[in-house]
Amino acid sequence: MAQAARKAVKSASKAVSGASGSLYSPLTYTPPVAIKLGPTHASRLRTHYENSLADNLMYLHYQHHDANYTPPLPPKKAEHDPNNPYSIGRSPPRPRGNKPLRPLATNVGGRREGEGPSAKQLEKSITQLKEIQLHIMSKDALVSKALLLAPMFQLRAITGSTRHEGGHDSSLGVEIIRGRKNLPQWRIRRGVPCGVKVTLKGDKMYELLNVLVEFVLPRLREWNGITMPAPSANRDSPSMTGGVVSVGFKHEAVELFPQIEVNQDLYPKLTGMHVHFVTNERGRGSQNKARALLSAFQIPFIRK
Amino acid sequence: MLLELFQLSQRCLTRQQAFPRRSIIHFNGLATVAADKKTRIVASTILNRAPILTPTPHPFEKEYYAYQERIARSISSPLPTDVYFKPGSLLERRFALEERQREKDAFGQDFTPMIGLPVEDVGKGGGKSLADQLEEEAGLEEKPQQRTHRADVEKDVRSLDRAGERNLYLLVKKDRKKDTWKFPQGGVEKNEALHKAAVRELKEECGPNMDVWMVGRQPIGHYEHPYAADSTKSEYNGAKVYFFKGHILAGQCTPDDKEIVDFAWLTKEEIQKYVEPHYWEAVKDMLSDF
Amino acid sequence: MRAALYPPSRLDRSTAPTGLHRPDAPAALERVITSREAHETIQRAWVVFSKAKRDAREAELKRKFDCMKRAMDDLEKTDGRLYRIATSKPDPRATDEETQEMLKQYRGVEKRAMEARIEGLFPRDLRIPTDTPSRDGWNYDWKPPLKTSEKSEGF
User: Fold this and answer.
1) Residue of B30, B114, B213 lying closest to C123 (CB–CB)
2) B51 and A19 in contact by Cβ < 8 A?
3) The whole model's pTM is what?
4) Which CATH class for the A125-302 domain?
5) Does the keyword Mitochondrion feature in the UniProt annotation (chain B) (predicted)?
6) Do A52 and B57 touch (CB under 8 A)?
């Protein structure tokens, strides 16, 4: 925790060029080797997944098929024949039924019915947590950009994430979200910053999940678990087929993170945030499988 | 295509009496049950106590983690102590003391770190020294338990605290000469599902005082074996055992002393020493190595 | 706050807030990474070690998968009714009739305990391993929750 805090909060008074004479200039210094930081300790949750959860998830989600089963083909896209005199001058036809395309369902062991999967394919096809996204949308920031600093600071403290940390180019740290469209009813304009997000992968992701499950969730008042959608909900909707479980927390939950609880005075304006747990599952039933995985990490779920 | 259909229809007309009567009666779609063979369908539970402790790291892993920790320390910004600790508090002084020691361990005893830790002012009039205060605090802290339990030392195979890092499986002993040690199993009743039968047999043989969670409804393995000619179950010529995985979350096995006389919680290698070789060949691929 | 998130001496011009190194980073790094060859050897050894672990784990998963597939192939041929029940997947969002009937037999605390076990999800009692065991160890005194009919009068 101290190490994460060390990486997270940088005090301006400890600037490199000040203090006892300039020792080195970070703009010109190159380290002796290209550093790509590896794991500094065994990840408890990752080990639990690998040793206990992976085979249980495989047993739960494996769908056996009859010998004469053929997997469903993706829906045929409407074809545009340029030689047909009817289609000259007309735009390509829309897909039949006007239904949007949804990702095909995954199965343990892959979708090949031949010799069976290789060991690597099998391991990749079992439900896994890929990334956790924390997201804060700030309405005040639409008025003034400077008001984004508080949510940025908050996410930095919780995750300890920095851009290209430890030499990893895939980690982008705390990112600023800009408006994609002009939506006057919510005062959102295209390109104007309105929120912050951070994406965590690998060991850092498991660390955050560990902190959430051990420190935050048990101490939340009047919160019994993430509500599951009703059984009658459309099983082909984007949320049900994306393999993502989303939950929102108010600022009371954010106060319970130990990185923030230790000195709450430093964070003048704590805001609630959304947490998205992204798995490798897609297609029909993928959100159910994602919920099964998260329940194994001690996140409670309740029926509506 | 039309020619082929015509030829097929001609063949059907001429072969009216060729099909034996028996297979017409018993053909019922995808799954056919052959009428003359009677195989007893048995459901068995492989009850697993999941690891309680994290695995002991390999020596190379320990060294590698320590090496990466040192690299991380050398490229990280130091902790701003004035932000996280009250100036002059005991916690701050304790942190400074420990941090200086950690820096020396990481970079060498002769390395002077430039990370702005508060200076320890010796000779503060009145009050106890830092070392005394830390000793007092250490006595109040709760000490963590040992990783090795009494059951490991005594090799008590009935204990569920033994071998905290490993996966343990429940093996039960039947009162007979051959095939004494097995996983709990029993026959499936009429109109019962296999996974329900597995739980029912487990509760009947090993008592109700176990909190069991079954992993899904699918069998994780099977084992078909013929009965001997002089066996007690004369209406069957063999049995098909379907294994189901379950987790024990609390409680303990209480054998009923009628079918089951003893039980043990064993790791995979220990199971090999207890069971018959033919049974081991059937179950070994379902058990976790670690 | 702005100076803490965007220190003036940072390297890149991106909008993401970035971190700093310690003032004596080069000296510290020299102490840790003694030579390029040593560092690269250690990294290669780690890659080989973790690959061996990963391959062992994947091989074990494959063995378990093949066992299950063979069992399901056999069950399909043996009994159609049992096969259909085995391949059915319960929806955790809904309770089926059998479970609803079972829940009616309980009340109060016991009912909430039975409702918390949702088929298709893991139980919360399956705990994540820790470095040291708990003070009380394994709970040997667990008893199943009593049904309403089994409870004695006066409670």
Assistant:
1) B213
2) no
3) 0.86
4) alpha beta
5) yes
6) no
